[in-house]
Amino acid sequence: MMHKFSRRNFLAAGATLVAAEAVAQTSQGAVPEAPATGAAVPPPPSQGRPYNPVVTLNGWSLPFRMKDGVKEFHLVAEPVEREMADGMAARLWGYNGTSTGPTIEAVEGDRVRIFVTNRLPEHTSVHWHGLILPSGMDGVGGLSHKGIPSGKTFAYEFDLVKSGTFMYHPHADEMVQMAMGMMGLFIVHPRDPAFMPVDRDFAFLLAAYDIDPGSHVPRVMEMTDFNLWTWNSRIFPDIDPLVVAKGDRVRVRVGNLTMTNHPIHMHGYDFKVTCTDGGWVPPEAAWPEVSIDIPVGAMRAYEFDAVHEGDWAIHCHKSHHTMNAMGHDIPTFIGASKDRLSQMIRRQQPEYMPMGTAGMADMGEMSMELPSNTVPMMAGWGPHGPLEMGGMFSVVKVREGIAPDDYADPGWYENPPGTEALEWTGDLPDPVRQISARTVLTPRPQGS
Ligand SMILES: [Cu+2]
């Protein structure tokens, strides 16, 4: 289970890295120890070229070791259990104990050697999406090289000739292995730390699963009808907030390995698209947005100056993607009277409860008995009531005076007096409304 950001986890990650290095130094020539734990906020690198690490939401970065000038990593493809939210665990396939896998971070100009050990019941491979490398290192099983059989370790080795925002995933039984959660981020930092510098650099991957309430394993044959829309295999309300100090320059990097596009919308700001998995966007070509569509099999990074304090929603703008598993198949009853129908059903099933005649908002507050291992369709409480969200939703929390290495949740924003929408109890002139023969008012349920 991964934990929320905290200074304690940050320090613990440092200790883990030191321990991993100690193991590596005592086994020269061996494959480096594959770490299986980590934390959201990686420490700056203790060896190799300097860089400002990314913060992988609910994730971690894979430690490395330097061996004869080559940066060595060790990925282990294996079955994992992922807590997607409190009360819901999924049995997935991932890397080094987690799905999504750990983020690989290196620097432009580095030569990397990435050992991949296969602990899956079938062969796999790793494709390095967006990286420029020799054909034989491209990771397409059967095309670039032999698939990695169960129980074997392959070594990939190549130079990182460009910086940017990339990812990795299998290219062997791809539909199954990606539907099971096998993917990770690959960030190549610029050789010049003064190039496109930011104070906070967040990263996450979009992944979709179809896991029936009460079960644990994704239905891998599903093509379109997914019911869990995740960031790094987590769903709201258990996705980390993006904690930012007022005045920070912030980058958000998003990759999409689902079967559909996701328009990621952030409130409170306009921002500039600065990087894709094809490279950096020249500043004179960057255009402003408030929603950025992440196409399938693509990555986008955007940047903004965090000058507006507050709690700002960040979410996919496809409204079904901010809902969780339960309830997508419920028929629409808005405006219908279910009184007679309810009486008929209650004769067979006394506990039957009609839903949704005035909308679905009551689901956000309802505490109905759920099947095991699932979460409500709408969840999350804010300082002013239920948020009625799920899936691909989080909050950018911009506050004055947050320390540079502090990513702990600062709690809810308190609106300064006079800056919050409140009930109006004064007089109002009659509102203008358009009524014509073609305007039909929604019929009200009888008796209301
Ligand atoms: Cu979406």
TrEMBL record:
Residues 1-24 form the signal peptide. The keyword Metal-binding applies. PROSITE patterns: MULTICOPPER_OXIDASE2, TAT. Keywords: Capsid protein, Cell cycle, Cell division, Copper, Metal-binding, Oxidoreductase, Signal, Virion. Residues 29-50 are annotated as: Disordered. It holds the Pfam family Cu-oxidase_3. CDD domains: CuRO_1_2dMco_1, CuRO_D2_2dMcoN_like. This is Multicopper oxidase with three cupredoxin domains (Includes cell division protein FtsP and spore coat protein CotA). The keyword Transmembrane helix does not apply. Residues 29-40 have a biased composition (Low complexity). Residues 81-192, 216-328 form the Plastocyanin-like domain. Transmembrane segments: none annotated. GO terms for molecular function: copper ion binding; oxidoreductase activity.
